[in-house]
Design goal:
heterodimer; A: 268 residues; alpha+beta; Enolase-like, domain 1; 11 helices; globular; B: 781 residues; Aldehyde Oxidoreductase, domain 4; Aldehyde Oxidoreductase, domain 3; seven-stranded mixed beta sheet; 28 strands
Chain lengths: 268, 781
């Protein structure tokens, strides 16, 4: 790791002020489950780290009826074990419980994960399928517009994810097929069913990051059953191909994992 | 035996410090004035070095010194050696390219050390290492052994034209051809044995300390054999004369073979300590470990098995190409030859065997022994072939093996080994019963009803451990003898120190070795201290690898205990005025048999040191040493049976059950032996379904972290069913065979035989990742 300085603001205002002072060389840290390993490998060298985990405004989970709002500084473990989320939207809580390992889940945060938009991160699949909203210190951005490409989001320089929110659907579930080495999602699928249709968010498999599988959504909106996607073909060209799996294999996974997510949604 | 003697499941004494974080590893060591090293490493797999510019780096804060390969050579530090001479079949010696500890002219793999930076802190050393500017001229790259042998392939070493190190053979080619001419059936298979990265939990580290007042060096290093390290660093690398060099291998967190070798870093840290005038410590990070620890396996093999009309084996032909990487590591030449082809007879009576092995240079990390070393490769070849032949013939794989088992001992194979004892059928029967093989078809049908594909595979392995008779290995080209030494030091109060040349890096020697004393004298293991890993404390020894610490190391302790016992009995007989032959030692007491006359063990020991009442002419003291040279290899063997369930939609393999029925000879601590088997199985299953080492075309290791290199996790593994039968080894006094490598040797073919059985396609290479299994399934469905 290169030499860096560490800052621990206790409010959003303090955090943004620090970021403004430090300029381009500063990075927000919100758990650091990606940033710290990257720094240890000397692949990133921010001169200043501004730790958001102690900012009170980013903390907390609120559930009003079926509306869920999760502060950006909330850890995955807090999401996974929150009784209200488990009761209103069990698929989302279960997703958080599948992230990394216990150490990661107690350090990593929703805001950090969403802002980083790793192509194999789990939350983006859910937020796309749930039609979620990403709240920042400046505005609100629909998930469909927020997630733009590999590690690319709608965030401006210095903008902070303060929360994510969504309405719980009638049924939902997340199914994850892990990369044998990293145990990140090689293909993770979140399905969400509402009266007006089904949405399918896919992470880990797409060449441009998480995406919505529209063919799958159409088929499942007609019949929310695993066999509904049997006849579909996922275009290989849109898939990642690397030493862990070819695009053909990942295209197969999108279908198989979607079916399993649907099956799971019926059992939640 | 006492309650802590042979056969007792004594809890590991050393675990208190390990599990409370109080182990003392090399990186925990600190000496006054100590500074930190970082190595400048090649980013290219093959390149000429046209110049090294250290001026910017030297000006950086905290930098004490930057040293390069020319300075190293100028100081007379020798090149790294390979300690086992193997000749080609035409009689020419192996062709070894020079391997300087710091490259000064050419680099041949990514990660090769070019310079060392010594600085105040590790971070400053690394910052400065990045600022060293090296003018590289890139050269063409080859990473696959088969490609390296082709005409026009990039050439690595002028000493080895065509990248061929040796073209070696074993066995009788004419007799084998003759056997094949009579065959009713020939089974042919191409086999790939995947390259593995050892990944001990503790990465390598070295701390070099030069004392100018005494002209003396101390080296703390993560070594499995510190005594050999001292010898080699002294005799071959000219770092220091042996009596001016102390090597300490304190707690070492796993080795699996990769810490046998003497690497460039410890040599350079010692040399740099003298050059810079400060103690120099280097600790590898995980990426460096991937890039510089010797890798394992990496064979391509064509095998043919000839059978008569009655399904008896007539002969075996094996053609192997072994990738040894960019340089010949310390024991690299022995692994694909004498540790491999000598085991190709497996558990079977095979009249004729011929093996040919080509060892090849490539632009990859050097390859050497890794848990099993040659024997997993041999077992994979023979056990995949046996299973395949049985399937081709439509007969039971178990019965086919049973029919061809060796049944009388000693048995001379056509490939050097003389098996001294064994009962292969006992293991097969125990394994099949534990695995409920007879109920398998029912379970397969049940799985099918859930849409899953079940498969059953077995592997009947044999290995040669307890390496090794010094005379025998000497005649085969080894540069060292492979005996072991021990010293038993009885203190005046009767507590005991055992000094051993073996080295424990996770195996539990401090407990198991102490159990020999408990067995012998009835003393609690807590009264015994096992000391190892320091050349200033322990007499010369050969270290721990090749499952040798029990069969060889403990045999040396056994011999030394014989001497201690004899002297203690003489003293007691003298004091008690009894006949020496009537003295027995048990439960910490020294008694005259059949009487109530006795002395406490501590009384005899104190008597030895006061010298007040010893037999005439007896020297005071109670301390004895012994060297033990084995008379033969030992031959652990067993039957492993794996049951898997494949998910046809994703190709994922779940290991439902794994049975290991082993024969390790006498077992001292069954709990520790079970642990050794569990660990070996985890590594073997890792090789079979997870671990893949991948180089891209430019020679970059693309699997150089756990993000890309799949290590087995607990959830990948079932609860193992392990059992042992005991056919005593006649070759050593305790009847031990060794257990450290068996799991890694026997398991890969059992897993692959099970998966190929499940999917109905035999064309599958390790690691059988979900995608590979899915593709193999698609090819037949």
């Amino acid at each position: 790791m290169y030499e860096t300085s560490y800052h621990r603001p206790s409010s959003l205002a303090e955090a943004t002020q620090l970021a403004a002072e430090k300029g381009d060389e500063a990075k927000y840290l919100s758990g650091g489950m990606t940033l710290i390993p990257t720094m240890k490998q000397r692949l990133a060298a921010p001169e200043a780290l501004i730790d958001l985990r102690h900012v009170g405004e980013l903390k907390g989970i609120s559930v009003n009826g079926r509306s869920i709002r999760i502060g950006g500084g909330t850890t995955h473990a807090e999401v996974a074990t929150n009784e209200e989320i488990k009761s209103v939207c069990p698929g989302f809580a279960a997703l958080a419980g599948l992230i990394g390992d216990p150490a990661v889940r107690h350090m990593g945060t929703v805001g950090g994960s969403v802002a980083n938009f790793d192509p194999a991160a789990d939350y983006p699949a859910a937020l796309l399928a749930l039609g979620g909203t990403i709240h920042t210190d400046k505005r609100e951005i629909p998930a469909d517009e927020f997630f733009q490409g590999l590690f690319e989001t709608a965030l401006d320089e210095g903008e902070i994810v303060t929360a994510v929110s969504f309405d719980a659907p009638d049924q939902c579930a997340y199914e994850k097929f892990r990369n044998p080495a990293s145990r990140y999602a090689m293909c993770g699928v979140f399905v969400a069913k509402r009266a007006d249709g089904v949405k399918v968010g896919v992470t880990g498999a797409g060449a441009s990051g998480a995406f919505r599988w529209s063919d799958g959504e159409q088929a499942l909106s007609g019949n929310f059953a695993p066999e509904a996607v049997d006849g579909l073909t996922v275009p290989e060209g849109d898939m990642v191909s690397d030493i862990h799996g070819s695009s053909a294999y990942r295209a197969n996974l999108v279908k198989v994992v979607t079916k399993r997510a649907v099956k799971k949604a019926h059992s939640h | 035996m006492g309650v802590e003697g042979i056969g007792a499941k004594v809890l590991r004494k050393e675990d208190r410090r390990f599990i409370t974080g109080r182990g003392r590893y090399v990186d925990d060591m600190s000496v006054p004035g100590m500074k930190y090293a970082a190595f400048v490493r090649s980013p290219h797999a093959h390149a000429k070095i046209n110049g090294i510019d250290t001026s910017a780096a030297e000006a950086m804060p905290g930098v004490i010194g930057i040293l390069n390969g020319q300075q190293l050579q100028g100081d007379g530090i020798g090149n790294l050696i390979c300690g086992w001479a193997v000749n080609s079949k035409d009689g020419t010696p192996m062709k070894m390219g020079a391997w300087p500890a710091l490259a000064s002219q050419t680099v041949r793999y990514v990660g090769q050390a070019v310079a060392i930076v010594v600085a105040d802190t590790q971070a400053k050393a690394r910052d400065a290492a990045e600022a060293v500017v090296i003018d590289y001229e890139e050269l063409p790259v080859v990473t696959k052994a088969v490609e390296a042998l082709k005409d026009g392939a990039p050439q690595l070493h002028p000493e080895a034209p065509g990248n061929l190190i040796f073209d070696w053979e074993l066995g009788d080619k004419a007799a084998t051809d003759e056997a094949f001419s009579k065959a009713a059936h020939v089974t042919k298979l191409h086999i790939h044995n995947n390259r593995l990265v050892p990944n001990p939990m503790e990465p390598r580290a070295a701390l070099g300390l030069y004392d100018p007042a005494e002209d003396h060096y101390t080296c703390w290093t993560t070594s499995q054999n510190p005594h050999v390290a001292r010898l080699v660093m002294s005799a071959f690398y000219n770092v220091a004369p042996e009596h001016k060099l102390r090597v300490i291998a304190p707690d070492v967190g796993g080795g699996f073979g990769s810490k046998i070798y003497i690497y460039p870093e410890e040599i350079v840290c010692l040399w740099a300590s003298k050059r810079t005038g400060v103690p120099v410590k280097w600790t590898s990070d995980r990426t460096e470990a991937f890039l510089t620890d010797a890798h394992g396996r990496d064979h391509e093999t064509d095998v043919e098995l000839a059978l008569d009309a009655d399904n008896r084996i007539l002969g075996l032909k094996v053609e192997t190409t072994a990738n040894l990487g960019a340089y010949m590591s310390l024991f690299s030449s022995s692994v694909p030859t004498y540790l491999y082809a000598t085991l190709l007879s497996g558990q079977y009576d095979i009249p004729a065997i011929h093996a040919n092995v080509k060892a090849v240079y490539t632009n990859t990390v050097p390859v050497d022994a890794y848990r099993g070393a040659g024997r997993p490769e041999a077992t994979y070849v023979i056990e995949r072939t046996m299973e395949t032949a049985a399937r081709e013939l439509g007969i039971s794989p178990a019965e086919f093996r049973r029919k061809n088992f060796i049944r009388s001992f000693p048995h001379q194979t056509p490939v050097i080994m003389n098996y001294d004892a064994g009962d292969f059928e006992a293991c097969l029967n125990a394994g099949m019963e534990a695995a409920d093989v007879s109920g398998f078809e029912g379970r397969r049908a049940e799985a099918k009803s859930r849409g899953k594909l079940r498969g059953l595979g077995m592997s009947c392995y044999i290995e040669a451990c307890g390496i090794a008779p010094s005379k025998a290995v000497g005649s085969l080209g080894a540069g060292v003898g492979l005996w072991e030494s021990a010293e038993v030091r009885v203190n005046p109060v009767g507590t005991i120190e055992i000094l051993t040349g073996s080295h424990s890096h996770g195996q539990g020697h401090e407990t198991t070795f102490a159990q020999l004393v408990a067995e012998r004298f009835g003393l609690p293991v807590d009264n015994v201290q096992v000391i190892h890993g320091d050349t200033d404390k322990v007499q010369f020894g050969m270290g721990t690898y090749g499952s040798r610490s029990g069969a060889v190391g403990m045999s040396a302790i056994h011999k030394a205990l014989d001497k201690v016992e004899a002297k203690a009995k003489k003293i007691a007989a003298h004091v008690l005025e009894a006949d020496e032959g009537d003295i027995v030692i048990e439960n910490g007491e020294v008694k005259v048999a059949g009487t109530d006359k006795k002395l406490g063990w501590h009384e005899v020991c104190l008597g030895a040191y006061t010298g007040h009442n010893l037999p005439d002419g007896m020297e005071p003291g109670l301390k004895e040493g012994a060297f033990y040279d084995p008379t033969n290899f030992t031959f652990p063997a067993g039957c492993y049976i794996c049951e898997v369930e494949v998910d046809p939609e994703t190709g994922t393999t779940e290991i439902i059950q794994f049975v290991a029925a082993d024969d390790f000879g006498r077992v001292i601590n069954p709990m520790i032996v079970e642990g050794q088997v569990h660990g070996g199985l985890a590594q073997g299953i890792g090789q079979a379904i997870l671990e893949s080492t991948h180089y891209d075309d430019s020679g970059q290791l693309t699997t150089a972290s756990y993000m890309d290199y799949a290590m087995p996790r607990a959830w990948d593994l079932p609860n193992f069913k392990v059992s042992t039968t005991e056919t005593l080894c006649p070759g050593n006094p305790l009847g031990m065979k060794g257990c450290g490598e068996a799991g890694a040797i026997g398991s890969p073919p059992a897993v692959i035989n099970a998966i190929t059985d499940a999917i109905g396609n035999n064309d599958l290479t390790m690691p059988a990742t979900p995608e590979k299994v899915w593709k193999a399934l698609n090819a037949v469905r």
